[in-house]
Design goal:
The protein has 15 helices and 12 strands. The protein has 339 residues and is α/β, with parallel strands linked by helices. A hairpin with a 2-residue loop joins strand 11 and strand 12. The structure holds glycine. The site of glycine has 5 residues, from strand 7.
Length: 339
């Protein structure tokens, strides 16, 4: 196990890499803890979760809504949870988002920690403190930025993860490589999901490297005034089409990254779109979709990243270097029309 303590603006967060779930008892007593998870994970990890207070939710992004928040709050009240209670999100991004959000508002805020159970949550969704819910087709429309007390990484939890979930996680890993880490991009080109799945050391290194990329960006710019915007690479269009077409998050941002790379080429400062598309395909991710550009543009107008007449679009200067490019909405509309 490797512990890294990270200082965010309002607190320190302990990251336990290469740990075992059993270490959780050393971090929180069973009396104080309430684990929030979903039915699939609860059934897959019944023996691990035995003896812990649990709130078990229905699985899926469609339940990342206010109604589920109300269900969790009702159950916390029924369990007698108070200000000393600690909420633990045991799951993927949907679970960690809901858990972090409820922890932020229950009794005006209680402690919380995460045990991410998917690659996506380990490298991205559980890190950074943004927690919230969707409203209709608008993803993460309501929420807050509040850091957890700890994150516990147990790679054994990935054993039951289906292939499409690995692909989902690798979409964010490829994103990190594209915007920040050309060396990792090369490593990914010469490996595959099958190789990472079968080589625990290689996987542990990759997950920690990606977690550290995200942590570093968040530490530098927790409230997304500058550098943190880079993490939105692929997400502007990605979020617009994700709920519209019921795509997985990885699929949606893979398509978003593809179009952002093509836009970077159209604006004549990037030449690596083909290389990025090849890598996304290698990891089983889609790079084209027949999407309704008009409809996507309408959803995009509600994007949180919009600033009056422009959006800070994340483009690529080269593989390993993302850039924040303010684009006029009319410019984006024009580019979209050409696809
Ligand atoms: N929960 C994801 C983030 O804070 O970026």
């Amino acid at each position: 196990m490797q512990k890294k303590t990270i200082s965010f603006s309002s607190r320190q967060t302990a990251f336990y890499f290469d740990a075992s779930f059993s270490h959780l008892e050393k971090l929180v007593s069973k009396e104080k803890a309430v684990i929030v998870t979903d039915e699939n994970l609860f059934n897959a990890h019944k023996s691990r979760l035995k003896g812990w207070n649990t709130i078990v939710l229905k699985p899926g992004e469609q339940f990342k809504v206010q109604q589920t928040v109300d269900v969790v709050i009702d159950q916390l009240i029924a369990l007698g949870a108070d200000r000393q209670s600690v909420l633990i999100g045991f799951g993927g991004g949907v679970i960690t988002d809901i858990t972090g959000y409820v922890a932020g508002i229950y009794m005006r805020g209680i402690e919380f920690g995460f045990v991410p159970t998917s690659v996506l949550a380990m490298v991205d969704a559980a890190i950074g403190g943004k927690n919230g819910i969707d409203v209709g087709v608008y993803k993460n429309m309501v929420g807050l930025i509040r850091q957890p007390a700890f994150l516990l990484y147990d790679y054994a939890l990935l054993k039951t993860l289906p292939l499409n979930e690995w692909q989902n996680g690798f979409a964010e890993i490829i994103k990190h490589a594209a915007i920040k880490d050309a060396v990792m991009f090369k490593e990914l080109e010469s490996n595959s999901i099958a190789k990472y799945r079968s080589n625990k050391l290689l996987l542990a290194k990759l997950i920690q490297r990606n977690a550290m990329i995200k942590i570093k960006v968040v530490v530098n710019d927790e409230f997304e005034k500058g550098e943190r915007k880079l993490l939105n690479f692929g997400h502007t269009l990605g979020h617009a089409i994700e709920n519209m077409y019921e795509l997985s998050h990885g699929q949606a941002i893979s398509i978003g990254m593809t179009y952002a790379a093509l836009m970077s080429e159209q604006l004549k400062f990037f030449t690596g779109a083909k290389q990025l598309i090849a890598l996304l395909n290698k990891y089983g991710l889609p790079t084209v979709v027949e999407f309704d550009a008009k409809k996507a543009f309408k959803v995009l107008l509600k994007d949180k990243k919009k600033e009056n007449v422009s959006i800070n679009y994340i483009l690529l200067q080269k593989i390993g270097k993302g850039v924040i490019q303010p684009l006029l909405l009319v410019q984006i509309q024009d580019i979209f029309r050409k696809f």
